[in-house]
Amino acid sequence: MLKHKKIYSFKAGPRLSHVHVEDVARAVLFLAENKNAHGAYNLADDVPINTKELVSTLLEPLGLTVKPIIPYSKSLVLLLKYFAQSLPKKVYSFLNKRVQYKWLEFCRKNEILYGLNPRIDPVWLDYLVNDKVFSNEKIKSLGFKFKWPDPRPGLMEMVENYISQTLLFKL
What we know:
two-stranded antiparallel ribbon, mainly alpha, two-stranded parallel ribbon, 4 strands
């Protein structure tokens, strides 16, 4: 168990669009049945959230307090991204073996199923550099309404489902 139930996070960061899997399935059916649907469509909710909001939304249901105290610096993240992407793949292989070992040890201690497989991937750093915000206006102009227009309730539901399946637990 963690002694301190506090996680430090960025104060802000780039905004990201998300979409609930249920809305993806509903949108596919909607578009398949709509005679006016042509071309490509972005499926993204209405509320892009930043790194702080994402971390808080995912960790607070686990009983962790997220303290956004780390100033976000795009220049620093770009430097880290450049450095991380220049490392040989064997470095990530080694790090991921260590992460996997520690994760499995943590799961055994806390009676968590092993369904999740955390890893370190330098490509993730791109999500800390620039906004990834997409417009959903094209599909909404056809009359589609998102059941999950804000990602936070769906993300919290996901965490609760992981807890109920003992893939995660509250601290």
